[in-house]
Design a protein that fits this description.
The structure is a single chain. By secondary structure, the chain is an alpha/beta fold. It has twelve helices and ten strands. α5 (147-158) links the parallel β7 and β8 (165-171). The longest helix has 16 residues, at 119-134.
Length: 328
């Protein structure tokens, strides 16, 4: 979200860079760090099971779940993006993950929802996509980032009659919002927000999602009104990372860290927890989680004698293995 807003009006965000360089005191939190009305959260500073290199390599064998897996993308996401028409191969949100799951005998259902529309709109489209593509079969949903909120809303509030969800696994989904979303709105200011939204509307960019990613909206509106549905199993994973000095995640990571604790550059571990928390991936960024890893970075890393600690394909194959063992 910040990348879109800053590209339109950098003067509204210039103060954020100044504040980050001088002092963290420029940021004021709209929600207290330790606020938690959900008894399942526990200590928000507890990262749970630390997963360091468990998914560094692909195993020889994984079990296959009996139900299809639906992949639900996050904010500004897509299933396949063609930048120059159909002449060249498209860019995949789930880079190599779909192919790996399919090769393991799993029926994979890719979904595409409006990139920055509201949770309600995205959830409605997600429901339509599953109804159209699943053909009445029960499904397991694996969702990255905001996709987890869409899926929760669909399961809880829409409860489509032709869609039976057996499980929902969320990966770094901001179940309690993100301090970085709070920060961006504070820096823009309520007096400037209509101008920003006006420009985005002119560019045909929907804006419903942005305010719904704040911690206040999630804690006061979304979560109280979106209870888990009985009969659906909820699993979740979080991640932590330490962005380099040239990383685009450096400032967001600092802001989220100050307000919420360990995070992957955008979403905190505390916010990622929902249902059965399976653990925290260590030294894995928000984009590493969908295999958008900087290959040059890993090449340099390995050339200096270090070993790669995370392979997203191994991670998703292991999730499917876990679902199969759970009977899904």
């Amino acid at each position: 979200m910040a990348l879109i807003l800053s590209s339109i009006s950098t003067r509204y965000l210039s103060r954020s860079l100044y504040c980050s360089a001088l002092s963290t005191r420029c940021f004021t939190s709209s929600s207290p760090r330790n606020e938690s009305s959900d008894p399942r959260v526990g200590d928000i500073d507890n990262i749970g099971r630390a997963i360091r290199d468990e998914y560094a390599t692909i195993r020889a064998k994984y079990k296959t779940p009996k139900n299809p897996i639906v992949l639900a993308h996050g904010l500004l996401g897509f299933d396949e993006l063609h930048l120059v028409g159909k002449l060249l191969p498209g860019v995949h949100y789930w880079r190599g993950i779909t192919e790996a799951l399919t090769a393991n005998g799993i029926e994979v259902i890719l979904t595409s929802v409006p990139p920055s529309a509201s949770i309600e709109e995205r959830a409605a489209k997600l429901s339509t996509e599953i109804q159209r593509k699943a053909g009445g079969k029960s499904v397991n949903i694996i969702a990255h980032s905001m996709g987890g909120l869409d899926a929760r809303y669909m399961i809880s509030r829409l409860n489509p009659p032709d869609v039976e969800v057996k499980s929902l696994t969320t990966i770094a989904s901001p179940h309690r919002g993100s301090a970085f979303a709070d920060y961006v709105f504070e820096q823009i200011g309520p007096e400037n927000l209509p101008k920003i939204y006006g420009v985005l509307k002119t560019l045909r960019v929907e804006t419903g999602a942005f305010s719904q990613l704040t911690r206040r909206y999630m804690s006061e509106d979304f979560n109280p009104n979106t209870p888990d549905r009985e009969g659906v199993e909820y699993f979740s994973y979080g991640a932590t990372a330490q962005p380099s000095i040239w990383s685009a995640f450096r400032q967001p990571h600092h802001i989220v860290s100050e307000a919420e604790g360990p995070n992957d550059g955008l979403v905190s571990v505390a916010s990622s927890k929902w249902g059965t928390y399976k653990g925290t991936l260590i030294d894995v960024s928000h984009l590493d989680l969908i295999n958008w890893t900087n290959r040059l970075r890993w090449l340099v890393w390995e050339m200096t004698g270090n070993k790669r600690n995370f392979n997203a394909i191994a991670f998703y194959l292991d999730i499917s293995d876990m679902l199969a063992k759970e009977g899904f």
